[in-house]
Amino acid sequence: MYVITADQRDSRTDRDRAGDLMRALNSNFRAAFVLPPDQTAGDEIQVMIEDAATTLDAILLVHRTDHWSIGLGLGAVRTPLPASTRTAAGSAFIAARDAVTRAKRTDTRFALAAISPEAEPSGLEARTREPHDGVTHDREAADLEASALDAADLESLIGMLLLLRQRRSPEGWQAIDLVQTGLSQADAASRLGISTAAISQRLKTASWRAEQAAGPALVKLLTDLHRRTTETDPAA
After folding, report:
1. Which domain holds residue 46?
2. Has residue 197 been placed in a domain?
3. Residue 124 pLDDT class (50, 70, 90 cuts)
4. Which of 70, 94, 172, 222 has the fewest Cβ atoms within 10 angstroms?
């Protein structure tokens, strides 16, 4: 399962934005949520999603608002599911908690963590468990360490995309928002009262094609990490 925990930035001096964000998420992704987005500890929201593509799109939506630190956790969720996201539990939620805490210290305000099903439910300290007899880790700790390294790599790649997006100009976003609705560049240019060459330049400056190419690749990497994080050894 993919769990997103988002913690509102500057919540002590800003209004509560959780309601706005949950409405935006529901408007765009309602059918993909395992349970509806939920407000948890005051200025936090949690989202539980089953597919990587929706997860990445949801992260991009939340990040664009520039009001949230975002933690993405990959792992298991205890079943049967409760009635609300806020009462759900499992390693995916532990991972998301670890990630959102780290996200507050990153340039992109995003972090990712993954925990295998075999990890202790007490937390992420299993990553640094001492070797048995000073020789080797047990299978669970070794699997978790490998998964954590993969998660760090993927966090860096997603972070690069987020940095690209947060440096995009308002004019670049204006052009992208129009072409994302299905308008041709010519129609988008007409809507903005500029030339086709001008909107093409806006899209180029905004690295629109680079983002379009990166998205599917990141979804594949997320899907693969999720599979390796949640699968168990049949012989165990």
Report:
1. 2-168
2. no
3. very low
4. 172
